Amino acid sequence: MINKIKTEAGKIYKEIVAIRRHLHKHPELSFHETATSAYIEKILKETGIPYHSGIAQHGIVAILEGKKKNKIGVKLKSVALRTDMDALPIQEENKVEYKSVNNGVMHACGHDVHTASLLGVVKILKKFEKEFSGIVYFIFQPAEERVPGGAKEMLESSCFKKCKPDVILAQHVESALESGEVGFKSGTYMASTDEIYITVKGKGGHAAMPHQNIDSILIASHIIVALQQIVSRFSNPAIPSVLSFGKIIGNGATNVIPDEVKIEGTFRTTNEIWREDAHLKMKMMARSIAEGMGGHCEFRILKGYPVLVNNPQVTEKAELLAYEYLGKTKVKTLDLKMTAEDFAYFAQKFPSSFYRLGIKNERRNITSAIHTSTFNVDESSLKTGMGLMAWLAYAFIKE
Fold it and tell me: Domain segments of the chain: what residues?
């Protein structure tokens, strides 16, 4: 079956490249994937795959049931394959014919590759539907890039009262891996992510008369420095954690102390219990510092995606199947990442594996990291992406 899948992936390769380029040229931001969703529906209709649309606004779940008769008394197996389809607010700088035509919006995280690959899997498995029994769910998810994320909203929809796969798989591009390679990590793989919004309130006035003011800039500075203790002194060193602040607005001047300062940042960790404890400690520390210096602090945490944990049995099985499809030298072991993914919600509900697809090609100078304005992929990775995922789905159903 491996050779059949590889042959079919080769046959439709140019078509899938064209799909990827169309998606890349017409990116849409999270929760605004109207044209993207319509384009996917068009291809599903042409392929003859039934589907449900409008899930979490623009999400789609397509369903393919194998035509091969199942053994009497044996439960039908089901596998779900998930892709994301939103883009990022980045101005593309690549000089390619399929460069984004939507100003300030770009597929800089490879979601165009993910979606095109999954459509390739749809076409491949449709071709071989008479050779397996069982159900494959194809999940086209909106809004991975923006909290609360499309995964959570899709899972809360009525569709997932019926769609309960035995296994769910997803792949994501990886700029550190060469095209043709893939990577797996069993167990905890990606961090949780929370957005932090702090407003420090004081009493503004002339900078030359600080005794008459409550210096919001100074209070904010103490809070930022002190909060680093959350990771360096309160966290167990065995639990990876990150606390970073990327935005500070103090709308004063060289001689004006502002009434308030706004601070924004992110907190990430790999342990859900410590995550909740850290939230409480951050709020308590910031508020006590502000009050101790005569000011006031409003501390809001927008809770984001949970820790992504790959099911060990599913991941180890998927890795062995990848050896069979690609050869052992093409399958790498991944390190823990402090980035986050809302696939974690799916992973909490179903046995899962989230793996990486290599897209780098140094000879062609395709080396830019994701979330950059020059990010691009070696499109030969599409052949690997759709072929391997089709093989994994087929093999898990046949197991």
Answer: 2-190+307-398, 194-303
Q: Which entry of 39, 345, 379, 394 is annotated as an active-site residue?
A: 379
Q: Is 379 a catalytic residue?
A: yes
What stretches of the chain adopt beta strand conformation (E)? 51-55, 59-65, 78-84, 135-141, 167-178, 182-184, 187-190, 194-201, 205-206, 241-250, 256-257, 260-269, 296-303, 308-310, 331-333, 352-360
CATH code of the region 2-190+307-398: 3.40.630.10
Residue 305 a catalytic site member: yes
pTM: 0.95
Q: Specify the DSSP element, H or E, that contains 276.
A: helix 272-292
Tell the burial category of 115 from Cβ atoms under 10 Å away from its Cβ (0-12, 13-18, 19+).
buried
- The string of DSSP letters for 188-212 reads EEE---EEEEEEEE-B-EETT-GGG
Closest alpha carbon to 368 in 358, 356, 360? 360
Closest CA to 216 of 293, 300, 286: 293
Name the phi and psi angles at 157, rounded to 5. -80, 165
Alpha helices in 96-161 (DSSP H): 111-127, 150-155
Domain 194-303, classified CATH 3.30.70.360, yes or no: yes
**pLDDT of 232 above 80:** yes
What is the band of 60 on the pLDDT scale with cuts at 50, 70, 90? Answer: very high
Active-site entry in 305, 345, 355, 394: 305
pLDDT of residue 249: 98
| Rounded CA separation 347/82 (Å) | 11
